[in-house]
Amino acid sequence: xxxxxFFDARKVMLELNGAEGGxxxxxxxxxxxxxxxxxxxxxxxxxxxxxxxxxxQHLTAIEAAAAISAAEVRGASPGSLxxxxxxxxxxxxxxxxxxxxxxxxxxxxxxxxxxxxRAESPSTLHIEGGTHNPMAPSVDFLTNAFIPLLHKMGAxxxxxxxxxxxxxxxxxxxxxxxxxxxxxPLTLTDRGALKSIRALALISAVPGTVADRELAVVARRLGxxxxxxxxRSIRPAVGPGNVLMITIESKHVSEVIASFxxxxxxxxxxxxxxxxxxxxxxxxGVVVGEHLAxxxxxxxxxxGGGSFRTGGLTxxxxxxxxxxGKFVPIDITANGxxxxxxxSSPGSRTADWLVELKS
Length: 359
Hints:
Elements: E1 14-17, H1 23-36, E2 40-43, H2 56-69, E3 72-74, E4 83-86, E5 94-98, H3 105-116, E6 123-129, H4 139-152, E7 156-163, E8 172-179, E9 186-188, E10 194-204, H5 208-222, E11 229-233, E12 241-250, E13 254-260, H6 267-284, H7 290-303, E14 305-310, H8 315-327, E15 331-334, E16 337-338, E17 353-358
Helix pairs in contact: 1-2, 1-3, 1-8, 2-3, 4-7, 5-6, 7-8
């Protein structure tokens, strides 16, 4: 990370409070900074978390954002509560970002993806770390839910999973090809007819009966036949890991629900959690699940507009919406109200929201 042009005083630097959210707030700021050329200083980074400050996966996201934009960075060290970031022009290229832990590869990807769509030529990314983490979108979520929406917006993105990586062992690897393209506004107010429901139980270095028991619960609770159930054992094993994913494909949008196995948690409990979430999504009729809403908000803002119906506004969503407005001249409303932190209260999860973005 270069210090050759450090912090030209003539540049207007945004002052941001990182205590208002977690790592997602930092990643959003990095994305918007390199997309808009706006420098920022963030203080109190993850101050409300048990382990405050920057962790390894956050540092990799910073390194990735700096690499593709020749940015000047100050404060990028483990545990740091403050970061200053001054981006340069976005540069296409072939990039390799090893996280070095089980930190999420998908979160690093999402940090730089929107900016590389604005580059002048294609780019490739090779990211190593965790691919299926409880606190991040999985590669399957990106492949089956998020990236298809980017395709609808005009993006040309291809993701290939080379190797699985579970927490805490890591060791995963993904590759992404990104071609330049302009993001277009997207409307998602009707999910269309239900096309399929399928379940995948992934296991690595745990007994195969774990996946079998999970899928048996899914079959019973969601009424799925054998053709909709897949038991996949990772060979060679990449450390202990288990995740059950239910993909609900409709005409216009897909939802991927994940439930992770953990020590002391039965297979039946893992499956029941996933089935409850899947049944709620199906029966409620919302278009965009709350986690997909978190992910699609930023691309829609960079596209200059769009709308979608969702069933719950998370704290991440509301803090992200507030931050986006500091970088991009766009109004983000939910049921006609400007999005603020009060909308992420528990009561909001029972409401249906029409989110609209207008520049």
